[in-house]
Design brief:
The complex is a heterodimer of chains A (215) and B (484). Chain A is built from eleven helices and no strands. Chain A has 215 residues and is mainly alpha-helical. Among the domains of chain A are: 83 residues, NADH-ubiquinone/plastoquinone oxidoreductase chain 6, subunit NuoJ (Four Helix Bundle (Hemerythrin (Met), subunit A)); 35 residues. In chain A, helix 1 runs antiparallel to helix 2 and helix 2 packs antiparallel against helix 3. The longest helix of chain A has 25 residues. With 484 residues, chain B is an all-alpha fold. In chain B, 57% of the residues are buried. At the A-B interface, helix 8 of A face helix 5, helix 6 and helix 10 of B.
């Protein structure tokens, strides 16, 4: 079998799965199912990248997104208690409009890309081989620390802003929260807290009798 | 490999990163009583950054990190004004933040990171740097909008801003990927804006390129807040704490102009006959929606939000002229709008006090009797926004209209003039409320006006008058940046 043809068949198969899974993310009623469909979307996108010979990126997508981010997402979704039916109200009403828009966009995209253009290789020669390196990962690492050094550093800044913003928005003094103050607990003196009152001893039967109304 | 020279070119940016990190540390180790000191340190940081930008400016445009970063006069002017207006926002913000117990190192650090995003964005020489600079600016802005978490409106505004901003970034990125793809068909794929300039001449997929261009224009429209991509503007302006609104109305607009210029002229300059019509359509819709909807607003912040949309229409008028003259006029307009916006929101900040937000137009009733000076400053800002002759705003409008006429778009200029006259109504209405209505009990006026705020605000508003009378040098500077 012609390897070019095999690649094309694989591309369409993975592409179909990606689109179908992405569609089910937004149409499935159960949000846990939707998250699982999103996992499938990421996974088939990773397969597409493998076809494009971007092995490192494909594996990173699976490890980082499918392995870490989506599992976290699943935890959050499972902990939410959402009334599913209420969310779906009005869906049927807006469905025709959405479908028309989607259909028009699809036709435009297909016309634009042109199915035939797929058969030729879109990008030029593999940059890794052109640079005299044996594999994609090596080239990626090299490019990140030389050609793309500045964007790499800016991305680091963006992550810093993410941390600062998360701290600023979540860590705050709540007026209704109760905190323990260790220093005040240590400083406290028993005499301030407990007051010993001297009382004359009273017999229980006597006290109850005295409280009863006099006949 | 990056050399020492590359680092020297990026000195103001590196300095600002270091300063922001230092501020974070200072904030963590300062005693609460020393916190107010952070305010003055932050302002000093920005002023030193302005000095570094101006003093280190090379005589000719230079690039660093293999074309990723461009340092030319356009970037210099935009950076100076972005840093300057942000320093003004810091001065205006102090009483507001103190009254609402929002003074924190995070506010200043996030603002400085946002300004850094602006500086990287306006100097971008590569699609990757454009995108990352924009994200740095946007992420900091989302967090700043949500900073006052306990109030009702800010979280809602922040979510809207975040969702629509993410959508816009997605559009922009999608367009960039198409342009990258088109550059690879028939040549080596490139992300460099200077190399993308003549991609149209050799690509074998011109439709793909144009499609990418449309997506990029949509992304730019979102960031500028031009109609029909303006939906987020009124809610964000109203919901955000007023100092943050002031920043979004000033620094962010300079950044949006810088981004539009870099992407459209530097990157897609060969396609100008395609995009100049798209921008003209955006301009007309923005002028119409902004000016007409602003008339019915009762909330001053919402009214100024719609006024922003209309001003972005005028800015697009200059960009649509697609030539050095148009760009110079548009940049002049962006600077003018930033100064006017800071002044208008600055008066609102001066009039708020603990437990009272000066937000409604009705809050300004009879301001002239209570504080003639504040009323006069607001009058200057409103007249300048409306474009009344001796003021700064008038000349900015004249220049963009002139650029549109010279670019053979007379119809566009006529539309601009018609809507400028319609727009007069709602600016003059504010002036009428201030000067001819009877004051109401408990209306706007601070018990103890903050002295630095009053001084800087007065200078800011009077500069609108001064620049209106003597605008030559600033315009010459703008025109020089575009080689005129």
């Amino acid at each position: 079998m012609n390897p070019q043809l095999l690649q094309l068949i694989c591309f369409y198969a993975f592409g179909f799965v990606t689109v179908a899974a992405a569609l089910s993310v937004i149409t499935l009623k159960n949000s846990v199912h939707a998250v699982l469909a999103l996992v499938l979307t990421f996974f088939s996108a990773a397969c597409l990248w493998l076809l494009l010979e971007a092995e490192f990126l494909a594996l990173a997508l699976i490890v980082v997104y499918v392995g870490a981010v989506m599992v976290l997402f699943l935890f959050v979704v499972m902990m939410l208690d959402i009334d599913q039916e209420k969310l779906r109200e009005g869906f049927v009403k807006f469905l025709p409009v959405g479908l028309i828009v989607a259909a028009v966009m699809l036709v435009e995209m297909l016309g634009l890309i042109g199915v035939r253009a797929m058969q030729t290789k879109i990008m030029g020669a593999d940059p890794a081989l052109a640079a005299g390196m044996t594999n994609n990962t090596e080239w990626l690492g090299h490019a990140l620390y030389t050609k793309f050094l500045l964007p790499f550093e800016i991305a680091a800044l963006i992550l810093t802003v993410g941390i600062v913003a998360a701290v600023a928005l979540t860590l705050r003094e709540r007026r209704d929260a109760r905190h323990e103050s260790a220093s005040q607990q240590v400083k406290v003196n028993p005499r301030d807290r407990v007051r010993i009152v001297k009382m004359a001893p009273v017999r229980p039967d006597e006290s109850t009798a005295s409280q009863e109304p006099q006949p | 490999m990056p050399t020492f020279n590359d680092i020297l070119i990026l000195l103001p940016e590196f300095y600002l990163v270091a300063a922001a990190c230092l501020l974070l540390l200072l904030d963590a180790f300062m005693k609460p009583a020393q916190r107010p000191l952070l305010h003055w340190i932050s302002i000093a940081v920005l002023l030193v950054a302005i000095y570094l930008v101006v003093a280190g400016q090379p005589p000719q445009a230079v690039t660093a990190f293999g074309g990723m970063f461009v340092r030319d006069d356009v970037a210099e002017i935009l950076k100076v004004f972005a840093l300057g207006t942000t320093a003004m926002v810091f001065v205006y913000a102090r009483p507001y933040l103190t009254d609402r117990k929002l003074v924190s190192g995070e506010f200043y650090t996030l603002m400085i990171f946002a300004v850094l995003g602006i500086m990287l964005l306006v100097s971008a020489g590569n699609l990757v740097t454009v995108y990352l600079g924009l994200e740095l600016l946007s992420l900091s802005s989302y967090a700043l909008v949500a900073l006052n978490r306990d109030a009702k409106l800010p979280p809602e505004a922040a979510i809207k801003y975040f969702v629509l901003g993410a959508l816009a970034s997605g559009m922009l990125l999608y367009g960039m990927s198409m342009v990258y793809g088109a550059s690879g068909m028939g040549g080596t794929p490139t992300l460099d804006l200077a190399q993308l300039h003549n991609v149209m001449s050799y690509t074998t997929a011109p439709t793909l390129l144009l499609f990418g261009l449309v997506f990029m224009v949509v992304g730019i429209g979102f960031k500028l807040g031009a109609a029909p991509f303006h939906m987020w503007i009124p809610d964000v302006y109203q919901g955000a704490p007023t100092p943050v609104t002031t920043f979004i109305a000033s620094g962010s607009k300079l950044a949006a102009f810088g981004m539009a210029y870099r992407l459209l002229d530097a990157g897609m300059g060969d396609l100008s006959q395609h995009w100049h019509l798209m921008l003209a359509v955006l301009a007309v819709i923005s002028l119409a929606i902004g000016n007409l909807v602003a008339i019915v607003q009762t909330n001053l912040k919402r009214m100024l939000a719609y006024s922003t949309i209309s001003h972005m229409g005028y800015l697009l008028l200059g960009l649509a002229a697609a030539g050095p003259e148009g760009y110079a006029a548009a940049m002049f307009y962006a600077i003018c709008y930033a100064l006017m916006g800071v002044a208008a929101f600055g008066v609102m900040l001066a009039l708020t006090r603990a437990g009272f937000e000066c937000e409604e137009i009705a809050d300004l009733k009879g301001l002239n009797q209570k504080s003639p000076w504040m009323a006069f400053l607001m009058l200057l800002a409103m007249f300048s926004l409306a474009g009344v002759p001796p003021l700064f705003g008038f000349w900015a409008k004249v220049l963009v209209l002139e650029a549109a006429i010279h670019a053979n778009m007379l119809w566009l200029a006529i539309v601009g003039i018609v809507f400028a006259i319609i727009g007069l109504y709602y600016y003059l209405y504010v002036v009428k409320v201030m000067y001819f209505d009877k004051p109401v009990e408990g209306g706007a006026l601070q018990a103890q006006p903050d002295q630095p705020l009053r001084v800087v605000l007065s200078l800011n508003a009077l500069s609108l008058l001064a620049l209106g009378l003597y605008w030559g040098p600033l315009l010459a500077w703008c025109r020089h940046a575009f080689g005129l």
